[in-house]
From TrEMBL:
ATP-grasp domain location: 20-250
Entry keyword annotation includes Cell wall biogenesis/degradation: no
Domain of life: Bacteria
Molecular function as annotated in GO: ATP binding; metal ion binding
Protein name from the UniProt record: YheC/D like ATP-grasp
Source organism per UniProt: Melghirimyces thermohalophilus
Gene3D superfamilies: ATP-grasp fold, B domain
Keyword Nucleotide-binding: yes
Keywords, alphabetical: ATP-binding, Nucleotide-binding
Amino acid sequence: MKSQEHKVASKGLKHQVMEQHPSLRSYLPRTSWFSQESLNRWATRFPVTFLKPDQGGGGTGILRIRREGGGSFEVCDRRFCCSVLSSDLYTAVKKKMLPERRYLVQEGIQLAVIRGRPFDIRVMLQKPGGRWVISGMVAKVAAKGQFVTNRCKGGRPLTVERALEEVSIREKREVEEVLRELKQMSLLTAKVLGARFPGLRELGIDVGMDRRGHLWVFEVNTRPRFQLFRKVGQPRLYSRILQTHRRLWIGASR
């Protein structure tokens, strides 16, 4: 059933829609709904597992679980980490989770780094004239000691071209090759989500790169912020995005 809503808050729902398209499936980390069973299964299966609130942004409420030796796990929020035994994992995680929120369990990806810090890329798409276009892209580098790149958590913006030149991966990829794949994947994502949710007008796709150079879609925001483009030293690009944003939302119900 198609929805005319301008915003889709559920990360799980958007993931399910994208996962149904065979050309997008390889870009999606394995994801399921949180439960005690899924937590134990995923935490023992993957070296790193992330827990994310189904709704919300800014990196708030995200937890990282790292498998350690001897049947113990490191559980981290944005403030501090603690080590727990497998028998105490569920209880420790529940204490750190945001109350009254549904959560997702997601496979942790070993991200490529820039000077030892993980980064990802925000792709901004807009739909002027009924056609999806890429309005801009910007890289976000995590602050020291952080596992999320959000600016409100200390992350800093960087041009995508510079990020791809500086990134450390096992097999170096040509910048133009990565940009071409990034654009094709982003436009396909917009097409797939736009077909299911025709009311969408803007998307902010957060894309990571692992240490092999493979791209991953971590999240798709349907009412994205775009102030990052002003912070990265692209005032003209920011102005164009802002003007298009205003045209798209004139007279629209929010």
